[in-house]
Protein 1
Amino acid sequence: MRVNFTVNGRPQEADDVWEGESLLYMLRERLGLPGSKNACEQGECGSCTVRLDGEPVCSCLVAAGQVEGREVVTVEGLAEYAKQRSEHGGCGTDSCNSSRTAGTSLDEAKRWAARGIDSQTGEGGELSPVQQAFIDAGAVQCGFCTPGLLVAADEMLERHPNPSDADIREALSGNLCRCTGYEKIMDAVRLAAARQSEEV
Amino acid sequence: MGTTGLPTNLTQGSRTKGGIGESTLRPDGVLKVTGEFAYSSDMWHEDMLWGQILRSTVAHAEILSIDTAEALATPGVYAVMTYDDLPTEVKHYGLEIQDTPVLAHGKVRHHGEPVAIVAADHPETARRAAAKIKVEYRELPVITDEASATAPDAIHVHEGRTDHHIGHVAHPNIVHRQPIVRGDVAAARERADVIVEGEYVFGMQDQAFLGPESGLAVPAEDGGVDLYIATQWLHSDLRQIAPVLGLPEDKVRMTLAGVGGAFGGREDLSMQIHACLLALRTGKPVKIVYNRFESFFGHVHRHPAKLYYEHGATSDGKLTHLKARIVLDGGAYASASPAVVGNASSLGAGPYVIDDVDIEAIALYTNNPPCGAMRGFGAVQACFAYEAQMDKLAAKLGMDPVQLRQLNAMEQGTLLPTGQAVDSPAPVAELLRRVKAMPLPPEQQWLTAGEAPDVRQLPGGLSNTTHGEGVVRGIGYAVGIKNVGFSEGFDDYSTARVRMEVVGGEPVATVHTAMAEVGQGGITVHAQIARTELGVTQVTINPADTQVGSAGSTSASRQTYVTGGAVRNSCELVREKVLEIGRRKFGTYHPAWATAELLLEGGKVVTDAGEVLADLVDVLGDEAVEVEAEWRHRPTEPFDLRTGQGFGHVQYTFAAHRAVVEVDTELGLVKVIELACAQDVGKALNPLSVLGQIQGGTVQGLGIAVMEEIVVDPKTAKVRNPSFTDYLIPTILDTPTIPVDVLELADDHAPYGLRGVGEAPTLSSTPAVLAAIRDATGLDLNRTPVRPEHLTGTA
């Protein structure tokens, strides 16, 4: 089947989609957006969390066909989404993420090299406040849980700009992390909230 | 390097910005927060196929027949392979003992063993085709524990063993046995005023890394294969893969893809050979990605254990002796079992002075899931038992449990039961003092003035099962000892290639190693070392691959020590060459080139007095300096097979925990309120990463204390909970605050005085939580994990 929907503000068309495919599979394997992760594919770990018409959902539990005509925001579009929100209160349709071929191409993967200088210098383009806070607070280790946590944390800060620790834990309780013990993730969300309130 | 026993100073950095001692940020951080970082499961290639593994549905059976015809006839299927299709005479692999078949032959030995592999153009097509393969089994009795494994008429899990352990084990279903005997336990027992005994059970824990086993194999024009893979040790994989494929090692080119955590679970091969076989058979790139269900079958787990301990003490609290027997269930294949036995036995007495010791550790072959490496590696199970014993002993003596531990704590110079002296700081008593001195969290935090209780702060949380009634607080302590690096005479080296040249008018260092970055932050530290040693700002870390020599495994808390040591060593060699060039070009202009000790700092050559002699840009000019060199820590030796004596370990690392829990005693629900840790790290090369390791390790210990266990049916040896729905790992709601007190006492044998960090916090966390639950409930809890039924008497 063919699925038409909006991803990170840009209209997308996926062809030859098998009816049993999940939104996660369609994003990762057909639209070249592998940022949403596949840690459990059964709705337990939150690594595939995306916004579907604004709601945070496990994209592994959403059938591809269910997103026909709807809007999806993934981690790849999070920085732009946050920017649009702070400027206009929403994500514009044309200005978000560019499309790519499916998956991370081998050529791209081969070219990957860890950068020698710190991201403190700001290299790597504009990040959303919560993305920057995750880097600064040391909340990223293996990073496999990070995309889902970022989408979930960004959504919580959108509706709850001054969360208590208990609020943060409750909001992120659907996102498993195996590396950090969550302490630095708590620090990162507190930091993002604090920076956000300073700006206002 | 610091001086032995003196603090290395947490905030002390190098004089070049971004060097060691600073909390520089991860070089892969931006890629990881934007979703651009390419993990092994993200690999994609035009025209690629998807591989799928068919796994056994029973634990122990003869294979009578395999019929692949229907699977092969499925549209979209390109290949189906079984044991009979393996291309060479090498059909087994293994870390130490090559006992694991690439695909099952004649027999399956555990639930979920690979039997056949399929390549197809869509993952669902591959899955459905695999399901059409008909395998006829004749089931055999299952061996599930020591009694069934060592019964006189027990089926041998592996027939005709020829490995080097078979000569010293009492039964072919025992992989390895290591006794550690020192002093005279019988005589010492006579001196004991009190004796405590215990029998402890440690459940099977899963690494539960979030990035599933996955990778992409691309067939090459030269008949070889390029493999992009998540692993802990590229060269160990290579040694096992190439012979099965019938290829020389230089035709199996491996590159590390992004690794979504490891924790020991990627030491063994998973889908590497299968993907290569299918790629070479079909001539197309093949990607394999396990789902979570398959991941539970696709890697080894932490050995479950039964531990029998007897300690004695005089009435003033001095330990007299220890007798211990540790039985580890290795499951169907050896994996790392022999080395786990070595650790469990040699560290079985814990960080205490005990002169008279008799320890025996064995690992079994059974039909349970194979077990091998997981963070803490044998030392975790032992720590759970000896720390429970310390609390029992303190209770019997009427002593404070921390005081009893401090009274018997080892120090620098203490002899381990192996006869090896601990020849660097061993601040066991000090770590306990520090963790005890931390302020306690306030009582009844769920009560806020004038409002209803916040149930989120209570056991049971939003299930709203209590508003404080039946809730009791408990506090527990534990401390542990872990070795760093590969022990028992293993040639535990690493290799680093470092290049220095001028790029864009600036001196740049490039570091190339085969170290697997699995999330721990090794690449961050390598760049810091290069800045410190070479005085540059710009460091490029090349992707890890097999085009450079082995880095050894990212395990055993060893990479910062060993590959960090290799990077430092290669940097020093590069520095010497750079200074030679400088002397050649500029030596005649200034006598200090010949007489002073010269350093590279801030992009310049300077004397140790701080005088600038030249810019690195001018020294290097158009020349590039490159060195690839191996580096080794001091050698170790095997433990004697009868007595366990020997200089077996490279380094030790220590951590202590204090757990504060609140237990709803009516429902058996536990909330861990705080889990404080104090750890000696020798020298924190990157303090932020060190905290991340300590907190992460602490929570994995919390997991095995109160929730994590792979449940294996004792009648069928089948796994009953292979999913994150049924195998629970701690969520952010289950996790408390984790205050950390980092101590830095230099180990003079190690680069910069550092100590391996990653594993020690996983040891003492579990027994501290158990001690706190015992303190709250008064129950005698001898197994981990503790579940509600163990606390309510309904088990």
Protein 2
Amino acid sequence: MQESMTQTANEATPDSFLSDLLDQQQSLTAVDRFAQTYETDGAPAGAKYYRDLIPISAPKAGQQYAFEVDLDACSGCKACVAACHSLNGLGETELWRNVGQLVGGTVELPVVQHVTTACHHCIEPACMVGCPVEAYEKDPITGIVRHLDDQCIGCEYCLLMCPYDVPVYSKSKGIVRKCDMCHQRLAVGEAPACVQGCPNQAIRIRLVDKDAVLDESEANQFLPAAPEPGNTVPTTIYKSSRPLPRNALPADYFAVQQAQGHLPLVFMLVLTQMSVGAFLVEQMMYSYFSLFLEDVAASVRPLHLGAALFLGLLGLAASVFHLGRPLYAFRALLGLRTSWLSREILAFGVFAAASTAYVGCALLDFFGLSISQGWQAGLGMGASATGLSAVCCSIMVYVATRRPCWQFPATSAKFLLTALTLGIPTTLLILLVGAATTSELTVHFVMTEYGRALCQVLLLVAFAKLLLELSAFLYLKGRQHTPQKRGALLMTVELGMTTLRRFFFGVVGGIVLPLMLAGKGNVADSYHPLFVGGMTLLMLVLLMIGELHERYLFFAASVAPKMPGVPAS
Amino acid sequence: MSTNSREQSSLSRRGTTISWRATDGPLTQELVLKPGKFGLGQVPAALQPDAMTQMVCGFCSTGCSLNIHLRCGKAVNLTPSVDYPVNLGMACPKGWEALSVLDSADRGTTPLLRDGRGKLRPVGWHEAMETFCRRFQKIQALHGMESIAFLSTGQITTEEMALLGALTKFGMGMVDGDGNTRQCMATSVVAYKQAFGFDAPPYTYQDFEESDVIVLVGSNLCIAHPIMWQRVLNNPHGPEIIVVDPRRTETAMAATQHLALRPKSDLALLYGLANILIREDWIDRQYIESHTSGFNEFRGHVAEFAPDHVASVSGVDVKQLYKVATTIHEGRRVSFWWTMGVNQSYEGVRTAQAIINLALMTGNIGRPGTGANSITGQCNAMGSRLFSNTTNLLGGRDFANAKDRRNVADILSIDASCIPDRPSWSYNEIIEGILRDKIKGLWIIGTNTAHSWINQNTCHDILDRLDFLVVQDMYSTTETVRRADLFLPAAGWGEKDGTFINSERRIGLIKKIAQAPGQALADFSIFRLIAEHWGCGKMFADWSDPEAVFQKLKQISRGQPCDITGIRDYQMIEARGGIQWPFAETDHHTPREGNLENHRRLFEDGQFFHADGRAKFLFELPREMPESPNSHYPYLLLTGRGTAAQWHTQTRTAKSAVLQQLGPRQIYVEINPQDARVEGIRSSQDVIVESQRGRLRAKAFVTPTVQPGQVFIPMHYDATNKLTLAHFDPYSKQPSYKDCAVRVRCVESWDDV
């Protein structure tokens, strides 16, 4: 339908008619023409619609404010979400309220139930417990769980802690924000935005007795298909005159959505565990190879420990990239009383100090300043012990979220085995480097005395770890679409390639290469020392890539509990 | 509250940027609220208005009023108006987000012309106008005056519709032009016109609150018109709510009776109800005798629709049919409402009239809480019905009637010979006209034909046959703009003045409270600019601004059922909280106390617009749907509104990050668990849905809310109409979007969709 266009090279000066129209278009006249009738001040005109939807008095002792949602009245228009967004001036994509849906019932009587949900202003807010900088506070009078935006460092730990997916992270601001029940409005007798915005008056604020809420949380009377209320004791009351059918499921129940990969945390966890692992292996070498200290250690210890320390510090540095506002990271110890994240940070701080001291001591020793054996042993023990406790804190950081995929047995096994999986080859590699650089040691000696044993242990550790990870796929057989099954589904479909790579690197680095190095015909005899060193380096690199993949999957395939969502989301 | 002391103490710490504890600071300040004044309550401090004005929303036909918060004359935020007789302080998400969709990178900022290499490139208005006129005039010279046509919208102001209709038909020599309102309410127009003698929805929203029985046919009010549902919930009489819908919708959930009938058995079911009402003598004989005609014939017609027969056709059992009939009989104020489930049907006009018949025979019309009431779609569908000058001559007149033509010519001071003597082709006839080489040039204004027209693949093929396609829209990225030769950037709602007329006949104002991006111009200005360049500027010299045109429309309406001569000016509309037509000069209107009381309904005197003053019973035998499910395509595809946050083709709603998050992001198909088991489909799995005409890939949503044998896909996704079958109501020419046969299967590795 094209026809060749003759182009006017230079457009004629726009006639005055056009420029008049363009000028008119840009002049805003509504104020001059119509605004005079609205010169009103005074009380909010909408109060008459919401007066009955907020309590007349402040909470008494033992009480707090809570949302009450009348499910019979919630028809799924989602005006509450938009009202909350506009009346609170939220960021473009930021939503503090959401509406999901439950479907179920029979062919004869199908049921669709929309569910509006925001922060539940829990009696025991997990966000507050987990926050390392005490950026959450539960108002002693109203019970509203408020987020202190200027206190936040943007660690996003509350996102992992909250079972209801409530806090919203803003990349541009570097902080988290969340529903504050419009406490500023309630303070002056106005209804929260969602209450004001619901055409069906389905949301109201009421006073609840905290004890009653606690009792009800025991009986699991929150909302079918929602995360169980026992963990945080949410205060929102969902009431309905018609019980939901037993087969009611969230509309997004079968949707599996990849979670965030948290790369800085992936590196932080793997590197710190590698570092702790290296210290641990060094300590074990003391115990099991009594000659180790005299024969070998003196020459390669500074290198070994230095490398371990460097890896640890690198890992800690990586964690900073995770923060939205790293400048304020120094606040991270405020939450020690409740937050495993604070404890983790402290523990790694202590570990860094202890291991630095140990490394310093080793260096002094290396340069001939005699340091007493007792001191060295003590510092060595200290570095290992603090490192181990720091890794335990890491474990608890994730266990504390109570996500089914991050339960204690699996998480602790993964983290500790990572420490060994990477600590052992690191040690072996350093020994070989030592052998290459010092005259007292040969590759042959290192391999026959220690290498074979180390490789055998590594083989065992790596095999156990891979087996453990494989066991996650057993959940695929389950009928119920549990978070673990969703995680396994993610790892087979969306994250399938990552999973494949993980096992490839794990098997080659943790089984094939150790088998070769620990094989009967001693490699050190048959191959050039440089080749042996290369193999060991390759083994370490492959194992490390494998562990990084494993940790990425740890986050990306961790399915978080949440309130019901919408289909095809 | 308790935070005061904290805030004070933190103030003293301000200035020290690094502190252990910061309970206040720039981030905290971002969320501080301040009194909004103007009766608004607390608003975000950064968006505190210095002035406020009200205007009606620009999405659906509910016609809610919004308080626009202004700063230095510009809109910064909005809240629903509190004392407007439509929405009582509430809005749906689209209303709340009405401003944010204006601000989008997709907005057209300059005209775009397709160059020799097939790319749309920016040009100035002058070149755009020259090209527009040259190309269209050339087509007219080659193929005749009637070889160019336009397709317009229910989303521009009444004044713009009138100017467009007058410009094209009186000034440019076009005969054919229709609106996308053909896709949403043409059926109601024809049904009312034939039954009442004029296209006149009789109700006021207050009727939702005054009924004791509310019958909703093919209407998911909760999702499509949430604010009307608000009015239902405001009803203090504990009404019976009867929903007739094949799907278990939100509205069906909230109903007291849900008739989950088989698709397209609605006509038989409604006749069946009439049969029971007559059989039991539950009819208002006096009303029938005094105010209607054709009842005896109707009685004979419905005699065939015995309850047993209707039960077997509709799948609704006899007991349930009797229960509904009894409820209607026992109700003192029964209102009947219908929406797209009725309108978008190949026998929609007769179905709508079957509803009208129920209201007439039970005397449920002209009284509070009653009526046979069509709920329309777009914000200004009603404006288009009265003043778009497309199939009707301005003011609900007849092109074929010489007296009407002379009348309009006199009012507008133009030569009567300028006025075409036949009504326009309807939308589908224009599309067919392109196929038959009768239409060679097309001007599309404010609608997304390439997305919304039925049987999309064919539609695309047909649009591509045009010699010249001009698309005028707010956004330069719609599916239709992508096929255009020339794009004209339009200012949208909120960037211009004018009036809309809502479902209950209420005229409301829209105002210029935001600056249009770049060189975008109000449709009104574009039409004037075209008039100048076309050479008929003189004819429209005094169509200088929207309010001047409004004064002309008043004159045009004089003596018509839609007489609005009593409306002084925009200020009066503003002051009264909108004004429902008719509002004649000769009426004696003493404004009632307060805007909320400002409502009126039609036919209170039992006088209809036919010459004999009576309403007609109209009826016809139901027909089979043309493409019922069969062994190759075993499922019936239903389409419709998905969520309250999505509007039509999502041209606007997709531009709001909030609205985007409220609806499913990708196309999905609802399928019953029984069928899903048979097809081996799990929820959230990708499936292929195909009809004889096309296919699409969608996420499966397994839900019992659709019946076995049926699937549902929302209309908002661009692929939906690849499946639909182009068939139309013979009277209204409205497309029947809700019945065609499809099959559903899992995605195979070789599928390329």
